[in-house]
Amino acid sequence: MTDNQKNKIALEDRAENGNKLYSPSTARNRDPIRDVFLKFMPLEGKILEIGGGTGEHAIHIASKLPNVVWHTGDPDETSRASIAAWIEDAGLSNVKGPHSIDVRAEDWGIEAEAPFDGLVSINMIHIAPITAAEGLFAGAQRILAPAGKFFLYGPFSKGGIHISPSNEAFDQSLKSRDPRWGVRDIDADLLPLAKKNGLILQEAVEMPANNLSLIFRKS
Ligand SMILES: C[S@@+](CC[C@H](N)C(=O)[O-])C[C@H]1O[C@@H](n2cnc3c(N)ncnc32)[C@H](O)[C@@H]1O
Fold it and tell me: Is the peptide bond before 129 cis (omega within 30 degrees of 0)?
């Protein structure tokens, strides 16, 4: 894969050290994301991360969660190599992977390991067709334990209105790259998917750079 293709998946210029990739956006958002995770998500049990990218969020969060087994992965091969390298380098026995789950699949191939106490997806559903959001919520219903939590982070609009001019510009730039991509709307896109799949929105936490952390609970 060329550098250009790699960066198109991430929408940013990632630095490399062997197979380990470093995401500039993760360097900026990993602490606030971890803080919200530690406040609202299960602190023990099994967590499944989708679209783990470089693997940095997994290592950063799981390093504070000795009683959690964190399973991460990504459908992209270069990302999986980075995840494997980060796991090996960190030497954390509670981080597993990489899996290669593409959320659009009807069966993620991990259902036999369910139930999971938590599901996490950071900055994925806007850089993918809406079928990815549909698959993610459907999978949440399949794999989460009763009262399990689903952490969704990214830029979202509310009631069809962008929460900042920069999010609106970002939405337009996503759509110019691929018309199927775009900032998802909490009311029009996500709450109907949550309802369809037995999930309730519990928390919407404002994050730096006009992003949100959404915490859903399986009913
Ligand atoms: C912008 S990157 C974010 C990576 C990481 N979560 C982060 O915040 O740094 C989006 C990731 O979602 C993954 N992805 C895209 N479509 C997906 C799908 N259908 N199922 C699972 N992961 C997907 C991509 O391979 C990519 O690694």
Answer: no
0.90 surpassed by pTM: yes
Report how far Cα 17 is from the mean position of its chain's Cα atoms: 23
Kindly report the protein residue whose alpha carbon is nearest to atom 2 of ligand 1: 10
For the chain, list the domains and their CATH numbers: 3-218 (3.40.50.150)
Angle at 26 between CA 132 and CA 80, to 5 degrees: 55
Q: Which residues line ligand 1 (CB under 6 A)?
A: 9-11, 23, 26, 50-54, 57, 74-76, 79, 101-104, 122-124, 127-128, 132
Instruction: Print pLDDT tens along the chain (219 aa).
Output: 444 444 555 667 788 888 999 999 999 999 999 999 999 999 999 999 999 999 999 999 999 999 999 999 999 999 999 999 999 999 999 999 999 999 999 999 999 999 999 999 999 999 999 999 999 999 999 999 999 999 999 999 999 999 999 999 999 999 999 999 999 999 999 999 999 999 999 999 999 999 999 999 999
